[in-house]
Amino acid sequence: MLPRVADSLSFLYLDVVRVHQDDTGVCAEITTEKRGRETVYLPTASLACVLLGPGTSITARALATFARHGTTVVATGMGGVRCYSATVPGTLTTTWLEHQARAWADDTSRLAVATAMYEHRFGPGQAPANATLQQLRGLEGQRVKALYRLLATQHRVGRFRRAYDPETWDTQDPVNLALSAANTCLYGITHAALVALGCSPALGFVHSGNQQSFVYDIADLYKAELTIPLAFSLHASASPEAEARRSFRDNLRLFRLMPRIVRDVQHLLDPEHTRPPEDDEDLDEQLVDLWDPVTGPLPGGTNHAP
After folding, report:
1. Which residues are annotated as a binding site for Mn(2+)?
2. Per-domain boundaries in the chain
């Protein structure tokens, strides 16, 4: 049985390697004077996301294999800090994209989804009745600052201020470095889950104007639980970026992030959706439907002439 997106491994970060395909499968290869040539085969069918850092090359055959298996491939900067581009598998259903587009295009439903995101993070009933998006942003900012103060006190960091500046990357404190590295991994996993569902990463409900807007929306649901506490725990680390990626990957095995993203996105876009997540991948394969404004979807691959 092919693995489902909810069961996929989280992510793999690679840099300074050559990724290619041989007769056995896709592998990452590196050659050094001390250790010679080393080759590691990659579980392409069960990887949700591959982050390609600087010094990485990949062949067309290997990239095509990732695409066939629905693995998102993201080209990133050093340590996975920046996202330059990402592949999008083409054999996806549009069911959840249609839900997303309908909710995004209507201001009332868009605000309702944004409010649901806020209450998902901070608890049911935490959003004031008839709150505007500006009010929700203000409430979110207050809660995040309070979390920063709490964790800074617990870890005796002193006053903490969130900063992200790639131009002065090496001069930033360990907490900011770890948080940026962990967040980038979280963005990659979230992007992979959204693409696997067929959603558009660009149609955000809180964020806007960026091809990753919906990725940022969904990733924000988990930062307070995953990346922020992790970053503060690495305040004394000598290599916070590398440790953040390793610890983040280890924590995901307990956190079960992929199934949560799938379930949460479906609930946000369609609150009436009650089908258990384990059944989501058991749908029969369908041909492309034809759109009809009166009768609804019609089967494709059929001659509809009288």
Report:
1. 140, 207, 220
2. 5-86, 95-273
